[in-house]
Design a protein that fits this description.
Structural class: alpha/beta
Distance between the termini: 44 Å
Number of helices: 21
Helix content: 40-55%
Shape: globular
Strand content: 5-15%
Radius of gyration: 29 Å
Order of helices and strands: HEEHHHHHEEHHEEEHEHEHHHHHHHHHHH
Largest sheet: 5 strands, mixed
Number of strands: 9
């Protein structure tokens, strides 16, 4: 920078200042009377920079002002350049997206005119023009035309009381709040007058019993809509739910405003997807709780017109946390049509935008995520050929290994299929009506629930004491207190449900144990003895896991690991039997392979 140049602009209605600045290679901060214009080349650099690192225009502007001051050019305005630069950068990004959209529209229009094939739009003409081909693809219930995955992330949230998103006239991948609210109302209406079933039977069109599904709902937090994963008291937007295709491209996103993982978000995403598909199209849907989503759809009548065209499965990473009966039916490797799809595309997407988490809690995040999705799509397209080649080689490798195993076992395929069907039938049949130890097991569960309730009540008392003395951060402390209240309420409800399952003899036995410290100690010793029978094997497994983690730490310290690698957390031996499904060990968003 050698000096400043003074340039006078002759402004009129046919040549406003903003247009003249663009001709000169500068982007104005406002269309009328701009007081700052930024070089298009500099904006392009900043755009690429913020695609690779967390968005922070404030820090960038302060650094740029310091650089100008060092060169002898001081910004005289009191507010600096941050607000005006942010406005210029925002509308420059919108201009870039609009340009890409216009180019894509013209290319599609040109291609459709040259080939005399109408573009893919949600209309009956599109369905009829391709009906013969799609009918041949969907001739069997096992045929899957496309595979998609759904998942929710509660780290992408926005604090209440802060500015909303800036205007965005471009196309968005987010569903409109109106569509999400309409689906929520539809779900509430269908569930209003339904009565629960008590018998352990196969519900209509389901392949696993109600007892297995109930056990799954109790063990998986994602299946419990009442479980709070983010505080709606402190955050106006509590998370994001994504629908991705098999190639890890975002199709739709849903902005979540509830504290839990409500089903209507997933249902709204699926409904929006089918709005752009032919009527005979069949999709494979991978979801962490796909079994529970299918049960709800069949039980309440959700997505009734689309349900025959959906094959449900569980994402591979979470499949092993489900009961064996769930894995037999919903594991994608045990279903026809899913191939080697693992359903972990959403996890890769969460990992790619994790750098946005701090800044988007205090700034409008929908546009920024939209822009990041656009960037990731363009980046993915450039490497799509290599991705397909890698998948092809991986598929051939798996196919060769499977063929070799079939030849080695010496059993023909029809026999293996018959044995597999027999195994599935035997291991998914309804459980016996009653157990001789049902009352005893329920009493044990009640005692364990009471103990957990007492622990959370003690924790709540400690948090309220810290709040009274102002020891910790007030916001985080309030969030923890709200969580404790929800946990206490949940345990009280569970305790009430467990008591109602006991008969007169069971209630008498419970009262007897509660009034006798000797029987309580005996029950505790029995439980501890049962756990210790399995402790050696589990302890060895945790030691092996911790040793592998330490080896990873050593490789990272020696520089022999990929750049940016993060070693998994160790499992403390003293908390080995206190793991929950939401503990850090199950979270893969921060790992490079997530």
């Amino acid at each position: 920078m050698t000096g400043l140049r003074h340039i006078d602009l002759m402004v009129c209605s046919c040549a406003p200042a903003a247009l003249q600045l663009l001709w000169m290679g500068y982007f104005p901060c406002v269309p009328l009377g701009p007081t700052l214009a930024v070089s298009l080349q500099l904006l392009s650099l900043v755009r690429q920079l913020f695609m690779q690192m967390p968005l922070n225009t404030s820090a960038w502007c302060e650094s740029f002002e310091a650089y100008l001051a060092g060169m002898g050019y001081k910004v005289n305005t009191k507010e600096g350049i941050c607000r005006r630069f942010s406005n210029a950068y925002h509308w420059y990004c919108i201009l870039e997206i609009s340009l890409d959209e216009h180019v894509q529209q013209q290319l599609q229009k040109s291609a459709s005119q040259s080939s005399d094939i109408s573009p893919a739009v949600p209309s009956t003409s599109h369905c009829s023009s391709n009906g013969d081909l799609l009918n041949s693809l969907c001739s069997s219930s096992h045929d899957v035309d496309a595979i998609v995955c759904i998942d929710a992330c509660f780290t992408q949230k926005h604090r209440s009381g802060l500015p909303d998103d800036p205007r965005n006239p471009t196309a968005t991948v987010f569903l409109s709040p109106k569509d999400i609210h309409a689906m929520e109302c539809e779900v509430d209406e269908l569930q209003k007058n339904h009565l629960g079933d008590e018998d352990d039977v196969f519900e209509e069109w389901m392949r696993i019993t109600t007892s297995v599904l109930k056990g799954h709902n109790e063990s998986f937090t994602a299946a419990d809509e009442r479980h709070q994963k983010a505080s709606s008291q402190f955050f106006s937007d509590t998370g994001v739910m994504a629908l991705l295709c098999r190639h890890d491209h975002v199709i739709y996103l849903a902005n979540m405003t509830s504290a839990g993982e409500k089903q209507h978000y997933a249902l709204a995403l699926v409904k929006a997807l089918f709005g752009y598909l032919p009527s005979s199209f069949h999709i494979g849907l991978l979801y962490d709780i796909g079994c529970q989503l299918e049960q709800s759809c069949r039980k309440w009548g959700f997505l009734k017109s689309f349900l025959p065209h959906i094959s449900f499965a569980i994402s591979v990473f979470h499949a092993f946390g489900h009961q064996w009966a769930h894995q037999l039916i919903y594991h994608p490797c045990k279903q026809e049509g899913f191939g080697l799809s693992d359903g972990e595309g959403c996890e890769h997407f969460w990992s790619s935008i994790k750098g946005l988490i701090p800044s988007l809690q205090v700034s409008g995040h929908l546009f920024v995520i939209d822009f990041q999705v656009h960037h990731l799509d363009m980046k993915s397209l450039t490497g799509l050929g290599n991705w397909l080649l890698h998948c092809w080689y991986h598929c051939q490798e798996k196919k060769g290994a499977a063929s070799k195993g079939l030849r080695r076992c010496g059993v023909d395929i029809p026999t293996l299929q018959a044995q597999w069907e027999a195994q599935v039938s035997a291991q998914t049949k309804p459980a016996p009506c009653h157990s001789t130890k049902a009352a005893e097991n329920t009493v044990i569960q009640i005692m364990e629930t009471r103990k957990s309730l007492e622990n959370y009540e003690a924790r709540l008392a400690g948090l309220e004491k810290d709040l009274l003395h102002g020891i910790a951060d007030m916001t985080n402390l309030n969030i923890e207190i709200v969580k404790c209240h929800k946990k206490i309420m949940s345990f009280k409800e569970a305790l009430q449900r467990q008591r109602t399952t006991l008969g007169l003899n069971g209630l008498a036995e419970l009262a007897k144990i509660q009034n006798s410290s000797y029987l309580q100690q005996r029950l505790q010793n029995h439980t501890e003895a049962s756990v210790k029978q399995q402790e050696p094997g589990i302890g060895k497994l945790s030691s092996t896991y911790n040793n592998l983690c330490l080896q990873m730490v050593g490789l990272i310290q020696k520089g022999k690991a990929p750049q940016g690698s993060i070693a998994p957390l160790l499992i403390p031996r003293d908390s080995l039997f206190k793991l929950d499904v939401d503990d850090d060990i199950w979270q893969d968003i921060d790992w490079p392979w997530g």
